[in-house]
Design goal:
Elements: H1 2-17, H2 23-29, H3 31-61, E1 65-66, H4 68-95, H5 107-125, E2 133-134, H6 153-165, E3 171-175, H7 182-195, E4 201-206, H8 213-223, H9 233-245, E5 250-255, H10 263-266, E6 277-283, H11 286-291, E7 296-299, H12 305-316, H13 323-334, H14 340-349, H15 357-369, H16 383-391, H17 399-412, E8 421-422, H18 423-432, H19 442-458, E9 463-464, E10 470-472, H20 475-484, E11 492-496, E12 513-519, E13 536-541, E14 551-552, E15 566-570, E16 572-574, E17 585-589, E18 592-593, H21 596-600, E19 608-612, E20 615-616, H22 620-625, E21 631-635, E22 638-639, H23 649-652
Parallel strand pairs: 3-6, 3-7, 4-5, 5-6, 11-12, 12-13, 13-15, 14-16, 15-17, 16-18, 17-19, 19-21, 20-22
Antiparallel strand pairs: 1-2, 8-10, 9-10
């Protein structure tokens, strides 16, 4: 009886004395309460830390920077959890001795727990972060020396002149002929400026003949950590200007400028607006430097004969070979006229010759046979080497495969200048025009196309991007492709910023491919056009921040396109097609298609259907009837008339 009374008495005394006893007596009488409070608070801290860790991981995946107070809180929480783990273990050991009377439990442990609990409580109170990360400003472009960069006498001189000029002037112009290496040198200058910490920020972007102001502003804003609050070009320019003015020293590298341009249109501060902002521009034409009031105009010249040979030899893998073979190879290198782009493209194309002396002699003869291209004014000295590399794509491949690779190259030229081409979209266009007919399935054709793109990249005719899912064309190579499609069997017409339907002296019957990019909202499409040979048609409305209505095209516009195989539409609205029985690829982005089921009835050869952010009605029944359909993509499509789309099970089993 005495044993049962003792704990009860202690409990009663403890409850009555809570508010009056000293903390030291509380450690003795309130041990159970202290343990419970500590345990609850520690468990809550563990759960809260797990949640914060999850948010931090998500922010990190989005390339966000973590707030310093969040990082500090995580370190403190981790430290407290580690230190209090020993106390948890000690509690467990004490609980093992249940025979011990409550008033005899360790006083020292109770004191430790009571001291730790407020610290844990404070961590819990300060853990409600509105956000754990933020989109930090980039330090600038990570400039990496190009494998094609030739540290030549001309490039070294130009680089030194530019670096010296940056100390005294704000606007520098670098000019030179196509393919001479202006872009590569500009990237090298960005790399030097970054390594020597001459600027707080370094940003580089390409202007090209038809600059996309919106995309350029986005790229610059990324470097300065700016999130635009306005959507108009003028508002974005003002925001960007103010953001850049807050940075002391800035280097802006503007690549491939074609004509006079006002920096304020973009929001780039210059002169009195920001004396710490220096601009380096590259251009093919010296007069552009003059019109832009460049305080220094620096020319990048071609490589010397010896420099050209060294670059060619390295790219073709010829070092250490015989004198006779190198002598023949030097003759080929000389045909490239000292232009780095031509040298790299031709050397890569011929790398497979290796030790084949007769092969090099044959190559020399082929160059002699193509002398008639010397007078071409489109690309000058770079044209013949590119033409040779293009023809050489058939080397080592079957005639059919070689033709397919060439056609894959030409398809890339339909896209805008300096555009990063989505490989998936290019593959679907290639399948649509019938490339690699011996491959049966979509997957086999995809693999063939990927291999073709790899060969084109290895040959130097295509370039990679930071995104493995995209490729691009050098602007000179694209000009060359347009020259090819102006005279050959495949006739292309590619226009950007189309204000009105093209007026042509001849009719459209000769064209097999047409791409009209950034069509004005005021353009009037004809009701009908004679397209007897057209296989590929790309139509895109210009980007408009105001969100105006889509461009409307009459269904009769397509009536005479009976040979059309690939149709790509962006920002268009139409109610149907007529007689597109040969269409194999239909790719629509941000469009509105009415009466989809009715026009699908006329597409009995359709293999590829991609509707991306496109409003459509219910199409399931007609899809089932498309026995040739092999690829269906519905990405965030909107459906009007029905709350959801219904796909017939037989289509999913196909």
């Amino acid at each position: 009886m005495a044993e049962s009374i003792a704990p009860t008495a202690v409990k009663i005394v403890g409850n009555q004395a809570k508010e009056y006893i000293s903390p030291y007596l509380r450690y003795f009488f309130c041990y159970g309460e202290i343990v419970e409070d500590f345990t609850n608070q520690r468990n809550a801290l563990k759960l809260r830390k797990q949640r914060v860790d999850t948010h931090v991981d998500e922010a990190t995946k989005q390339m966000e920077l973590i707030h310093k107070d969040v990082e500090d809180w995580l370190r403190r929480a981790e430290k407290e959890l580690e230190e209090t783990q020993n106390l948890e273990d000690e509690i467990d050991r004490v609980n093992c001795f249940q025979w011990c009377p409550q008033w005899g439990w360790p006083y020292c442990l109770s004191k430790k727990l009571a001291e730790k609990t407020p610290i844990i409580s404070e961590l819990l109170e300060t853990s409600n972060f509105a956000q754990v990360g933020y989109r930090g400003s980039l330090q600038g472009i990570e400039f990496i020396t190009s494998t094609h960069f030739m540290d030549s006498k001309s490039s070294k001189s130009a680089l030194n002149q530019i670096m010296e000029a940056m100390k005294a002037v704000n606007m520098i112009g670098l000019y030179g002929m196509p393919g001479v290496g202006k872009t590569t040198l500009a990237q090298e200058i960005g790399k030097h400026a970054g390594e020597q910490k001459l600027f707080d920020k370094v940003v580089m972007f390409t202007m090209s003949q038809n600059p996309n102001i919106n995309n350029i502003q986005d790229k610059v804003a990324d470097v300065f950590g700016l999130k635009f609050q306005t959507s108009s070009p003028e508002g974005r320019a003002e925001e960007l200007l103010k953001s850049m003015q807050r940075v002391n020293k800035i280097l802006v590298i503007v690549d491939d400028l074609w004509e006079e341009f006002k920096w304020k249109i973009l929001g780039i501060p210059f002169g009195d607006d920001h004396k710490g902002c220096k601009i380096l521009l590259t251009t093919r034409r010296q007069q552009v430097c003059t019109k832009m009031n460049c305080q220094e105009e620096i020319q990048l010249g071609i490589l010397s004969e010896d420099e050209a040979w060294v670059l060619f030899r390295d790219q073709a893998g010829l070092e250490g070979n015989s004198f006779a073979l190198n002598n023949e190879a030097k003759k080929v290198a000389a045909q490239c006229k000292g232009l780095p782009l031509a040298i790299v493209v031709v050397a890569k194309a011929l790398k497979c010759l290796s030790l084949d002396l007769n092969g090099w002699r044959t190559v020399n003869q082929r160059f002699k046979d193509s002398r008639h291209l010397d007078n071409e004014e489109v690309l000058g000295d770079v044209l013949r080497p590119l033409k040779f590399s293009y023809d050489y794509l058939k080397k080592g491949n079957s005639q059919m495969t070689g033709n397919d690779i060439q056609m894959c190259f030409l398809l890339c030229s339909l896209f805008p200048e300096d555009f990063e081409i989505p490989i998936e979209q290019l593959i679907m266009c290639g399948i649509g025009v019938g490339l690699f007919p011996n491959a049966n399935s979509i997957e086999e054709k995809r693999n063939e196309m990927v291999m073709a793109l790899k060969k084109l990249k290895k040959s130097g005719l295509l370039l990679g991007t930071d995104d493995a899912k995209r490729i691009r064309m050098h602007d000179v190579v694209r000009d060359f492709a347009h020259w090819l499609t102006s005279i050959g069997e495949n006739r292309f017409m590619v226009r950007d910023k189309v204000k009105k339907w093209p007026d042509m002296v001849e009719n459209f019957e000769c064209y097999t491919g047409i791409a009209l990019w950034n069509c004005s909202s005021n353009i009037k499409f004809p009701d009908k056009v004679e397209f007897s040979k057209l296989k590929t048609l790309f139509l895109k409305r210009e980007w408009n921040w105001r969100g105006d209505d889509l461009l409307v095209v009459s269904s009769t516009f397509f009536e005479e396109m009976r040979t059309l195989q690939v149709l790509y539409l962006k920002h268009f609205s139409l109610k149907g097609f007529h007689s597109l029985s040969n269409l194999k690829t239909l790719w629509c982005e941000f469009c509105k298609l009415e009466n989809v089921s009715s026009f699908l009835m006329n597409m009995r050869n359709l293999e590829i259907l991609a509707l991306i952010d496109t409003e459509i009605d219910e199409i399931s029944e007609e899809l089932v009837k498309l026995s040739t359909l092999k690829y269906l993509r519905l990405s965030f499509a909107q459906f009007y008339g029905e709350s959801e789309i219904r796909i017939h099970p037989s289509l999913l089993l196909r």
